[in-house]
């Protein structure tokens, strides 16, 4: 009898030990299953929330411009989250002499928790204010359009107007992108559509002007190989009079044209760049010449770019105070202009919230929401990208506010 009981106890203990080991291994596996999905979901959720906050901040500042309230910007500097992954496992049992009355209770569990710390930075100071009110650089406009943004959209959102110049680069007149001056605004819109039509028909070129700048002219002795190696981007050429010409490759200003600038001579590209250099950094030179596609609607001058602050003012005032109006394309513009909305960026102001998924912000008891069209969403993306260009390094522009959950 004692031997039978001892064997029974031993067998029960072995079963318990095996169960405990199995539970421990299973719990370890479960902790590995809980950890990565939790981390993944948290990172994606933080990313979605951060993006939503940026959208609301842009709409909020458009609302402030609409109500003629000073803009204010805040960014999330950093989010630090500590993750704790916990697993528990246990087993308990009791046995009786009569078969069929042995019990083994198994317990296991896995959990994950996080403790995020947010750093919120109110953006202020001279450096940021300067970037906010300074006009956007030509590189911002050229890069966006070159990457596929409709040039008409870019001009309407970023352009303050077009400065018409003579062939020597001297100022003739300014065509403003402002509905308060209907004639100039109509002409600006038609020029923007004309460039868009040329772009869609693949007859518009947006390039930086490459040229060879003369470093030394009339060098009597042939340059040494060492000079060639040490001189960055230097080229040497023997002239007909027996002297040497030394040039350096340069990449100049951006030019929008209806002809291929690479087919011009080096001297012509150099002269065009010299004309472009007369303009400030927020001007994008335009040369639509006669004799090329679209040349029956010629233009020589430069697009003057706004600051990010003035873009917000333009969009905000366009809600109902200085409204834009419909403009049809010029008969000389090639092709069909399928996208030509009345407003550059439509913002709806309502008492009730918009449909789910539409970016919105609540200000002074009104909902400011994005117009739900392809054009408006593309325009809002450009506005977001320009915000990223304007807000670069925020480490020195304000005192961070840290919030721990």
Task: Reconstruct the topology from this structure.
Elements (H helix, E strand, L loop, with lengths): L1 H65 L6 E22 L8 E21 L2 H8 L4 H9 L4 H8 E7 L5 E6 L5 H19 L4 E15 L5 H6 L3 E5 L5 E14 L8 H12 L5 E6 L10 E7 L2 H10 L29 E4 L9 E4 L2 E5 L3 H17 L10 E4 L1
Parallel strand pairs: 7-8
Antiparallel strand pairs: 1-2, 2-13, 3-4, 3-9, 5-7, 6-7, 8-9, 10-12, 11-12
Description:
By secondary structure, this protein is an alpha+beta fold. Helices cover 38% and strands 30% of the residues. The protein contains nine helices and 13 strands. Strands 3, 4, 5, 6, 7, 8 and 9 form a seven-stranded mixed sheet that branches. Strands 1-2-13 form a three-stranded antiparallel sheet. It has a three-stranded antiparallel sheet with strand order 10-12-11. The longest helix has 65 residues, at 2-66.
């Amino acid at each position: 009898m004692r031997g039978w009981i001892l064997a029974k106890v031993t067998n029960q203990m072995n079963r318990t030990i095996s169960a405990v080991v199995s539970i421990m291994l299973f719990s370890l596996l479960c902790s590995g299953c809980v950890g990565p999905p939790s981390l993944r979901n948290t990172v994606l959720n933080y990313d979605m929330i951060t993006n939503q906050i940026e959208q609301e901040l842009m709409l909020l500042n458009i609302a402030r411009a609409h109500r003629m309230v000073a803009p204010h910007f805040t960014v999330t500097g950093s989010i630090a989250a500590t993750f704790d992954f916990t697993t528990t496992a246990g087993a308990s049992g009791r046995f009786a002499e009569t078969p069929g009355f042995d019990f083994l209770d198994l317990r296991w569990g896995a959990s994950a928790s996080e403790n995020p710390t947010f750093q919120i930075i109110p953006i202020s100071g001279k450096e940021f204010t300067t970037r906010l009110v300074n006009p956007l650089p030509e590189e911002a406009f050229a890069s966006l359009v070159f990457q596929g943004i409709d040039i008409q959209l870019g001009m309407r959102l970023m352009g303050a107007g077009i400065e018409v110049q003579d062939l020597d680069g001297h100022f003739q007149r300014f065509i403003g992108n402002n509905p308060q001056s209907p004639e100039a605004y109509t002409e600006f819109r038609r020029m923007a559509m004309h460039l868009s039509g040329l772009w869609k028909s693949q007859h518009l070129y947006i390039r930086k002007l490459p040229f060879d700048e003369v470093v030394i002219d009339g060098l009597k002795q042939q340059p040494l190989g060492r000079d060639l190696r040490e001189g960055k981007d230097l080229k040497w050429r023997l002239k007909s009079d027996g002297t040497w010409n030394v040039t350096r490759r340069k990449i100049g200003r951006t030019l929008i044209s209806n002809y291929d600038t690479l087919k011009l001579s080096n001297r012509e590209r150099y002269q065009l760049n010299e004309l472009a250099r007369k303009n400030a950094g927020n001007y994008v030179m335009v040369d639509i010449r006669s004799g090329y596609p679209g040349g029956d609607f010629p233009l020589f001058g430069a697009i003057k770019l706004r600051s990010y602050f003035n873009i917000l003012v333009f969009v905000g005032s366009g809600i109902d105070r200085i409204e834009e109006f419909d403009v049809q394309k010029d008969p000389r513009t090639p092709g069909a202009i399928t996208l030509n909305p009345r407003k550059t960026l439509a913002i709806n102001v309502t008492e009730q919230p918009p449909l789910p998924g539409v970016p919105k912000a609540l200000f002074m008891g009104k909902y400011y929401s994005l117009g739900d069209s392809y054009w408006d969403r593309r325009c809002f993306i450009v506005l977001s990208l320009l915000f990223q260009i304007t807000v670069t390094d925020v480490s020195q522009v304000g005192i961070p506010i840290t919030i721990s959950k």
